[in-house]
Every structure is written in structure tokens, then in C-alpha cells.
Amino acid sequence: MTHPLPYRAIPWPEDRRFAFTIFDDPDGQSLEVTQLVYSFLADLGFRTSLGVWPLGIRRETNSGGETCANPDYRIFLQQLQRKGFEIAFHNAAPHPCTREEVIESLELFRSYFGNPPRAMANHYNTDAIYWGSARVEGWRRAVYNLATGGRKHKLCFGHVEGHPSFWGDVCRDRIRYCRNFVYADINTLRMCPWMPYSDPHRPYVRDWYSGSEGAQADAFLRTLQQQHQDRLEAEGGACIMYTHFGHGFVENGQLKPEFRRTMERLAAKRGWFVPVSALLDFLVKAKGHTAIDDDIRRQLETRWLLEKLFRGTS
Ligand SMILES: [Zn+2]
Q: Has this prediction a pTM greater than 0.85?
């Protein structure tokens, strides 16, 4: 079957056959898990992106996981950054924040890591940006709201001028890339050949990227199963895994053996293993930048919504 999207293989640098990276959201991730997972990935030659919460906890949280208020966590992140991993943004904290707090968190981020984050992925806070039902438009928003029961945590205001959590202008000034749609296919670029792309309907994000499903260990391993890895390589594609390494990758203080085997197999291939921002920067150079139109937006949203409804993707 031919694919309806204008996908074409990219000539990757250094004669690499495909590109692979990960954006890891910090939900539920202890320092111990961060150390186990990232020491392993670093030894295999992967250089990926970790979303962090720069701000310490100030009120009731909506998620577990370390924040940068823990100096030991921060030191480990700085070591990873020196090795070539990308430290990225997962909103200010694991709880709703005001505009002032988001700005404070970005200043903290800069003081810890030397520059503002280049990439982000939304956490389900009120300060998330174009999140929840704002990810889709028209009939798709109505279907999304029905399917999710209009849950309160799906409401977000980071892009809503005048709201106490509005910080869209700051996002646009300081952050380059933001994740939106996640698809089941391992080849993220095949699902979203336009990435990174801007969306005239969502001007407070400079450029969007997509991800491949891997919210927790089982989904991650399903997406990265052997035949999928081989197809990613054969297609010369690019995979940006969406995951939470805090969700099921470590059991009894040990990495899950299947996770080890999966990543070792992938590392043995001639892949280009760079962080999310480096990969997206390269894509802009290789194929130019796209501002999506109504037709492309409809394709991206419809596919995402159908997969979410019928395959349970994120
Ligand atoms: Zn999150």
C-alpha cells in the first residue's frame, strides 16, 4: 500500500541509515530510575532529550517524579548534558503554575543548564499550551471532548491571553520546538513528513513535532519491536519516541531485560542518535520548513484522533 503522505527518505549525516531519538517526560521518574536508564543509554551511544520540571513543588501535585529542586538530580542532569544529552522542558512544575512562575522556571532552567530549553513537551497543567481539546479543531474537538468526558485536567490556558497561566508570548520567544501528535508507527517522519512545522492557528508555538507511541514500557517495547526497527532502517526514517521512563522500565532496581535487549539491538544499527532539537534542526536544513495549511492540519488531527480512539495511543 502506498502511503498518502508525501514521505521521502532523508539522506542522514555521516552515512547513517536512519535517525532515532527519545523525548522522555519526567512523570513518575525517581533519581534512581533516571540514573539507571540514562547510564545505560549513554553507554550504548544514544543521545536523547529529557523533559524536566525546573521549579520545586509549591502546591498539590498532579504527578510524581523528580524536579530540579533536588540538587542531586540537577547534578546528574548536568553530567548528561555535558555528554551530549538535551535537557528540555515539561512545563514549570508537576502542578498548575502562573505566568510569573513559568517565567521564573525558565530563568531557573537557564541558571542550571546555561541556556533556555529549545524543546518542550506539554504536561497536563493549566499552563500547558494548545493542549487538551485545543490540540484539535472543528468536529475533531467535539469528538475529543466526548471521548475524554471533558475532563478538567484537559483544560489548558498557556496560549489564552489574559488568563493567569498565559505565557504563549514567552514560549514563542524562548522555545523552538513543542511536541503535539503521537502516532503508533515507529517512523514518526512517515506519519508527519512536515515536521518541524508551524501552524498559523497556533502562533505561540514556533514549531511543532510529532512522536511515536511509547507512553510506558509496554507501549515503548511494542513500537520498538524487531520488525519495526528493521522497517525504520529500511525506510531511512526518523523516530522520535514519546515516553515516560518512570513508567515500568525499572523493576526491583533493575532495568527490564526486554528494554535492555531492545535498545542494544537498535544501538547495533547504523542509526543517527542525536537529541530531538538536533534532529529537528537537521530536518529544517534537509527539507526546509513547512507552515501547515488547513488540509495538512486536518490530516494530522484526524489520523491522531482515530488512532487515539481505536488504538489507544497517547
Ligand atoms: Zn507529564
A: yes
